[in-house]
Amino acid sequence: MGNLRNPWVLLGILSLSLIPNLVQAEVGSPYAHTCRNKTCVKVERTKLRADETPLSLDVCKLNCNALGALWPKPTGKVELGQEFLSFYPQNVIFRNASAASVEVKATLDEAVKIFREYLLMYHPDYKRDGVSPFPENKEGDNIAQNSLVIDIGTVWDVKNVVLNVDESYVLSLESNNQRNSVSTSIVANTYFGARNALETLSQLIAYDDETNSLKILDRATISDGPVFAYRGVLIDTSRNFIPVESLKRVIDGLSYNKLNMLHWHITDTHSFPFYSKSVPEMTKYGAYSSRKIYSVEEATELVEYARVRGVKIVAEFDAPAHAGNGWEWGPAAGKGEMALCINKEPWSSYCVEPPCGQLNPANENMYQVLGKIYKDLLDIFDNELFHMGGDEVKLDCWLENAEITDYLKKKGKNNTQETLIELWGEFQSKAYNLVKDNQQVKANNVTAIMWTSELASIEHAVQYLPANNYVVQIWTTAQDPVIPFLIKNNYKTIFSNYDAWYLDCGFGAWIGEGNNWCSPYKGWQKVYENSPLQLLSPALTPEEIDAAYKNGQILGGEAPLWAEQVDELTLEGKLFPRLSALAERLWSNPDTNWYAAESRIVQSRHRHVQRGLRPDRLQPEWCHQNEELCYG
Amino acid sequence: MEGKQQDVVSLVGSLGYEHKITEVMRVDIPETVINCDNKELQQVELPEKPGPEAGHCENLNGTRWNGTADSPLDLTIHPPKKRKLAESDLANYFPGTKIKESVKRNRPSVISFATRKSQQLENPSGANPEEHFLQALGPRVYNMIYGNSNAFSGTLQDARCSLVRTSISADGDPLVDEHFKKSLGEKTWMEVQVNDSSMFTVLWSLYLLSMNFTELLRRGETISCSNLEWARNHYTDAIRSLNSVRIEGGISLVDVVLDRADRCEETFRGEFTEEERYQLDVTEDARVEIRANNTAGALRALESLYQLLWPANDDYSLYNINVTQIVDLPRFSHRGIMLDSSRHYLPEKMIIKILTIMMYNKFNVFHWHVIDDQSFPYVSRKFPELSEKGAYSRRQVYTPETVSRIIDAARVRGIRVILEFDTPGHVNAIGRSHQEILTPCYGDGETPGTPNPPHHAAYENLDPTNELSYTFMREFFTEVVDTVPNITHIHLGMDEVYAPCWNSSPVIKEFMKQNGYTNLSQVQGHYTTRHVEMVRSLNVTPIAWQDPLDEGVE
């Protein structure tokens, strides 16, 4: 690893001619920042007190308050030193990196590469080409004498993100006696803890335009680990297709926030972009176009991309509703109608939004195809968690259908709302068995996730969705009485209550006029303050809530971004920085309100921009530069 | 050609009063037909049709055309007449076989090769292309296009209706030769200009030919009109990027012929909707003609043209265009977007991107709210301290060169820029370097420059009682007028002048007494009037937000 120094020096030489002389101009600013009363204030240089040094805003933020620029806030001890060391990224040395297996070591090397690029990204002139815009090492340049030395130790041979995997770490920084080197020690049980530590370490470093170098705290101790195991986002690629490159950027953003789950709502009634190698008809008929398809290779690559960044992709195959386009080839292929009501009108009679479509539980061929699709999904995606959807079934679609009526008649039943619920339950049980039959490693007990629905209701949940087999994802409001019911009946839960965590709310309607159905927009403050534990009271006592948490029943939460009004052009602004707010709620579960987090989230958002994301802007830049003067 | 009737394709911009598509070039058009809602057409403006009598002109193909004494190409001489749409109009203006006739009747058949297309298409294999062309068109026409230049001479009547030859290349440009060789055998083409001293004609021809796009671009290089140059490249690139594989037969942007080249360089004033009027024809023989009174109109036409292209197959490798006629002009002459570059700095690149998107939507005014309380990114050479202290950082500024580049980018997109320098409120960023021209507030009732939170800060609003405020602003605006190219308007802001600070000041009270004012609106009026006069004296038209009027300022 020591040899890494040389290439960086080379790159430094190459980049010299490319750098405009902007840095000098920046130094000429009449203002600088300095830390006063735990706040970075912008003052004229001539008015700095004798004991104050002019700092760039980013450097000032590193340690001006107890949490510096850290996001999400660590859950253990945080001690931040008060001095800085200037250094160039070419003088970062990864001295030791221990791992329990070759595979983990290789992943660790990836993480180191990513970390190194973050350092370059902090420089405003970085062009995202791997070429360092920092000065090369030269004799007489004191900063070139300084180094950052990093040791990483991981213990266990864990390769994949699994629920409750140990993501914790201890990070400590110490300056040597000569004050020309900071050594960093990262200790974690798993690679994922070590990766989180590197993310935290990158948040202790900032670009300093006063010296055109990076600055790091001279001393720090941070011990940290998440409060909730499941911390995620839902991305919907059926309503609108989202290219793989954009999904990678979303995963990048998740990793900045230590979010660990990407719930991929890959198909729906609108389009079927997942290429199933055993049933290629699905994309042939169901994709928006031949270009708007995820190939097996792309999906596999994405799973690996996410894994390196500490993120698990949880695939969802929504059924029996939210399935339509892509299933229409049955009659021509002699398989009968595998889905009913496809694009049927008036849509409001047969589904919750156009286009309609619902699988046909009376058709055995449908189950055969479904099993093949499950297998193709499970071959690529996770075998621990698999989302089966199960939301928003409109029984009226089945009610009017002769095939369904006949099917029920053969069983000696009439076609009624109640028998249709039974039929739905029958579908779910068959589908669950198909998932179990098709999982890669039979020994693993795949856990299915289901949305709250009529089937997951107080009346039907226990009968149709046994708590041992299913995790329930709650999308209804925080006041839904089914929430305490599920907890009391031993269900594991993931919170996505739409009144706080639906990121697609609050824009103009996409059908009809006015605003969309779950308006208003959920501001980051609202996202931040939605606490899964708090919303359980008063329905549950503090003791019951505590027991449920300790019992592992409150897995965490997830913010869905349904894509009726989203594509790759609008994706990042709608996700970020609100996902940061979600991340701190789920990682840290803070006792404090959004107000205490405001200046940190603004700084964190700025860091997202430096790394190339396009998050929404929360405030005028003036408020970033003058945090103490911007308040409600 | 297997034609099919289709009503309306989507157009993002304004459809002034007429949009017809009479025929579709290819068979495989989508089944969906969007019908025009007649209700929405109740108040459309219809052009008065040119009368059938008067002179006659000879067309290139030798047929005779009955036109009025004035050139029917001059759209301005038939002003739109607003009236209710009658049943007979509907029959005329919406699909049906009759419409095709009405199109032909209305349109000056300056280019009428369509009627002889079948002859032209008959290219004996192995024939010498030039000879074939000669045979197809006749020697006279051939010479007009390809041969010698004939200076026009004749009566005024002839001038108005005759077709004076224009050559794509009078000197036998090798590119043209190449073009002929490639294109003949499939389709023939030509391009003509109507010469009429009373009007400005842009005839922009686009052909579906057996050319590939590289040639198209090369052809395009013969066009020279600085106001259109950028758009030509832009749309050519845009069409090419649509065309990821190929456009069947190729689309050829052949030439722009300008009757009066000087109009090309004229600044778009945006004062009259007529400036943006255009007529766009896509003819049966796959020719596109754009006629406009001004380059701004030509730009709007190009945008419409771009929107008329539709993918003919699933993998977007083939594009079609329907036979279309559009006559269009905007309902309002000011159609704008305001950007605020003070609350957040907007990089030049982003502003230019937005200007491009504005062009796609046929906007014509970019109102640039350059400065505000939060930051002052505008670099004044006379008062450099304004941005030195007022900008978010040294990187986040607009130098005079940046401003010129942005205004130039707007110009080639048919957009004019109105700079706003908001005063007397919204001036916190000015106060960072020029506190002396802000009004000292009396927060404690006695001391100037004291705040009274949350009602007012220590200093707020430019000081209307201080003569320095006016001399400063005059010097500043003089610099703006001197340095900003093509400046015709300045937006003075004048919004949200909050009263508490001025109310707290005994100086303002004394000022009111001296001037006989009884309320603060009069003080604001005083300030506004002086600025309006100041800017007018610099030969620039002032604009302000509605606030002064709301406050009863005259």
Automatic annotation (TrEMBL), chain A:
<feature type="signal peptide">
    <location>
        <begin position="1"/>
        <end position="25"/>
    </location>
</feature>
<dbReference type="InterPro" id="IPR015883">
    <property type="entry name" value="Glyco_hydro_20_cat"/>
</dbReference>
<keyword id="KW-0378">Hydrolase</keyword>
<keyword id="KW-0325">Glycoprotein</keyword>
<dbReference type="GO" id="GO:0016231">
    <property type="term" value="F:beta-N-acetylglucosaminidase activity"/>
</dbReference>
<feature type="domain" description="Beta-hexosaminidase eukaryotic type N-terminal">
    <location>
        <begin position="70"/>
        <end position="204"/>
    </location>
</feature>
<comment type="similarity">
    <text>Belongs to the glycosyl hydrolase 20 family.</text>
</comment>
<dbReference type="Pfam" id="PF14845">
    <property type="entry name" value="Glycohydro_20b2"/>
</dbReference>
<dbReference type="GO" id="GO:0005975">
    <property type="term" value="P:carbohydrate metabolic process"/>
</dbReference>
<feature type="active site" description="Proton donor">
    <location>
        <position position="392"/>
    </location>
</feature>
<dbReference type="GO" id="GO:0030203">
    <property type="term" value="P:glycosaminoglycan metabolic process"/>
</dbReference>
<dbReference type="GO" id="GO:0005886">
    <property type="term" value="C:plasma membrane"/>
</dbReference>
<keyword id="KW-0326">Glycosidase</keyword>
<keyword id="KW-0732">Signal</keyword>
<dbReference type="InterPro" id="IPR029019">
    <property type="entry name" value="HEX_eukaryotic_N"/>
</dbReference>
<protein>
    <recommendedName>
        <fullName>Beta-hexosaminidase</fullName>
        <ecNumber>3.2.1.52</ecNumber>
    </recommendedName>
</protein>
<feature type="domain" description="Glycoside hydrolase family 20 catalytic">
    <location>
        <begin position="228"/>
        <end position="589"/>
    </location>
</feature>
<dbReference type="InterPro" id="IPR025705">
    <property type="entry name" value="Beta_hexosaminidase_sua/sub"/>
</dbReference>
<dbReference type="Pfam" id="PF00728">
    <property type="entry name" value="Glyco_hydro_20"/>
</dbReference>
UniProtKB/TrEMBL annotation, chain B:
<dbReference type="GO" id="GO:0006689">
    <property type="term" value="P:ganglioside catabolic process"/>
</dbReference>
<protein>
    <recommendedName>
        <fullName>Beta-N-acetylhexosaminidase</fullName>
    </recommendedName>
</protein>
<keyword id="KW-0326">Glycosidase</keyword>
<dbReference type="GO" id="GO:0005975">
    <property type="term" value="P:carbohydrate metabolic process"/>
</dbReference>
<dbReference type="InterPro" id="IPR025705">
    <property type="entry name" value="Beta_hexosaminidase_sua/sub"/>
</dbReference>
<dbReference type="GO" id="GO:0004563">
    <property type="term" value="F:beta-N-acetylhexosaminidase activity"/>
</dbReference>
<feature type="domain" description="Beta-hexosaminidase eukaryotic type N-terminal">
    <location>
        <begin position="251"/>
        <end position="308"/>
    </location>
</feature>
<keyword id="KW-0325">Glycoprotein</keyword>
<feature type="domain" description="Glycoside hydrolase family 20 catalytic">
    <location>
        <begin position="332"/>
        <end position="552"/>
    </location>
</feature>
<keyword id="KW-0378">Hydrolase</keyword>
<dbReference type="InterPro" id="IPR029019">
    <property type="entry name" value="HEX_eukaryotic_N"/>
</dbReference>
<feature type="active site" description="Proton donor">
    <location>
        <position position="496"/>
    </location>
</feature>
<dbReference type="InterPro" id="IPR015883">
    <property type="entry name" value="Glyco_hydro_20_cat"/>
</dbReference>
<dbReference type="GO" id="GO:0005764">
    <property type="term" value="C:lysosome"/>
</dbReference>
<dbReference type="GO" id="GO:0016020">
    <property type="term" value="C:membrane"/>
</dbReference>
<dbReference type="Pfam" id="PF00728">
    <property type="entry name" value="Glyco_hydro_20"/>
</dbReference>
<dbReference type="Pfam" id="PF14845">
    <property type="entry name" value="Glycohydro_20b2"/>
</dbReference>
<dbReference type="GO" id="GO:0030203">
    <property type="term" value="P:glycosaminoglycan metabolic process"/>
</dbReference>
